[in-house]
Specification:
Elements: H1 7-11, H2 21-34, H3 38-43, E1 67-71, E2 95-96, E3 99-100, H4 102-106, H5 108-120, H6 131-142, H7 152-161, E4 164-168, H8 179-198, E5 206-210, H9 211-215, E6 228-231, H10 243-250
Helix pairs in contact: 2-8, 5-10
Amino acid sequence: MSNMIPSPILDSLVLTHPSWHDTLQAGLRAVAQADAAYLSALADDAFLPNGGRLFAAFSQPLDAVRYVLVGEGPYPRADSATGYCFMDGAVGELWSSAGLSKPVNRATSLRNFIKMLLVADGRLPVEKTSGAALAPVAADALVAGSGVIQTLAELQHNLHRHGFLLLNATLAYRPHVLPAKEAKAWLPFVEVVLQALMQRSGELPTLVLWGKIAERLAAMPVATRFPQAVSEHPYNLSFIGNGTMQALFGSLALLQRAK
């Protein structure tokens, strides 16, 4: 093992699927070769996600990946940053009697993503996605036997079973480091990950790129080989009506419990 990679960073590989180990170690060596000081500085600093979850997204087996969903970076709150793109650990239940639950409403990107799914499913008109319009939709979802998922954990399970690798362009968050600068340091790592996916047998996964930092990956030479679906970040209200995202997610029935 190369001594370029600090032990606290290597220790985070324990939560990853074994099929990724060689690739992730190669990716970390690429980061160290591009900037010899970066990983040591990160290991000596406080960053999110904590609890050894830096590479948690790679619990999804390499051969299971059909989509690579790339967000911008971890949530800036310890209870929210899980190591999975977009999965806010502070959220449990999705619904309330008034519409979406309070934790979902506080998680702007997640709220808009669920609204987009409801529009794509035909449960909600795109011009009416406010709380008043959501109340009857939520009431139907909360009925016993509705078949609608009730928790964020179920949504993450559905994303995984459809082959989503829930990756952030910036794997770590530190409040004193600009996200764009942090993301630049991880570019060599992401490139190695994409190379590994390209070398598999079978179809290439689709890159789903959300937001300006993630969109920068689109021009990487290896990324141009992949099918791509690009959109604004879900914290923008316009994401709810994004036709590309509705077409991509509409057929996946992510709000339905797996049978």
